[in-house]
Specification:
about 280 residues; alpha/beta; Purple Acid Phosphatase, chain A, domain 2; 7-stranded mixed sheet; 6-stranded mixed sheet; 5 helices
């Protein structure tokens, strides 16, 4: 008997990472980004239905849950319905985007989401670190704060395991994951030693010409980097096309996107480069 087909929004994407710990092979991570809720719409009922079918160990929310000031109640209604359906084995983590107001952020605090404000969480006994950049319209993420907080979290985790300072350090390096609404921070993530970055913001262009030519991406990255699996040196960055729209509620040759990434050991596609390369366009 054939397995049931996944919901049309869900796209399973395998990713190869050379430093992936053996115990994390097959780990599944779902990413929801750029909902841009402004009012009740049938599409959000379809999204909630898709979320019910998610088979993921981790759920990442990467920002822009609303569009404009005043949209907070409608956005919260959708987010609450989504979170009610999410039951990932290792938890739900999120960051905010440039459209999310301070009111929205305050309302979202009680949701069952680990909101990462230039912060980091250690999970799976130290095998995974989930980092998150705070993103605001007029304020860049605080890299130094993230670095300092991450070190503090690691020390807290070591103390919780009753490790001593003379530990031989033989444990494998953790998988380091970063949530950043803005994809142009991929080189910064590479400098920080991240393995994999999850971003949105561009909507993949939202309106495209044939051959994936994006007309506008709200981002200073070139058009061909607006969606896909990007690589900078030894770091991969996935840029989702997102689930909603801004300006005009219309997508052309750029369908909404709810990716589920399945991690495997292996060499990355393409050779390491000092520039950002799109190794798997969407």
């Amino acid at each position: 008997m054939l397995p049931p087909k996944p919901h049309p929004l869900i796209e399973l994407t395998p990713l190869k990472l050379p430093r992936l710990p053996a115990e994390l092979v097959g780990l599944r991570i779902a990413q929801l980004t750029d909902l841009h809720v402004s009012r009740p719409r049938a599409r959000y009922r379809a999204l909630i239905k898709a979320v019910e079918e998610l088979d993921a160990d981790l759920i990442f929310l990467t920002g822009d849950y609303m569009s404009n000031p005043g949209d907070e109640p409608a956005a919260m209604k959708v987010l609450e319905a989504i979170c009610e359906k999410l039951h990932p084995r290792l938890g739900t983590f999120g960051v905010f985007g440039n459209h999310d107001t301070h009111t929205m952020r305050k309302l979202a605090e009680p949701l069952p989401v680990h909101w990462l404000n230039n912060d980091m969480h250690v999970i799976e006994g130290g095998a995974i670190e989930v980092h998150g950049f705070e993103n605001e319209r007029y304020k860049w993420p605080d890299t130094l704060r993230l670095v300092a907080t991450a070190q503090e979290r690691r020390e807290q985790h070591q103390r919780s395991l009753h490790l001593t300072s003379d530990c031989d350090g033989s444990a494998a390096a953790p998988l380091r994951l970063l949530l950043s609404h803005y994809p142009n921070l991929l080189p910064v993530a590479s400098d920080l030693g991240m393995d994999l970055v999850f971003s949105g913001h561009t909507h993949g262009g939202q309106w495209r010409l044939p051959r994936r030519l994006a007309l506008y991406t709200s981002c200073d990255l070139p058009s061909h980097l607006s969606a896909g699996v990007l690589r900078h040196r030894q770091t991969l960055g996935v840029v989702s096309r997102g689930l909603g729209e801004t300006f005009i509620p219309l997508r052309i040759l750029c369908p909404p996107h709810l990716p589920v990434f399945e991690l495997h050991q292996g060499e990355m596609a393409e050779a390491a480069s000092q520039t950002i390369e799109n190794v798997q366009p969407w």
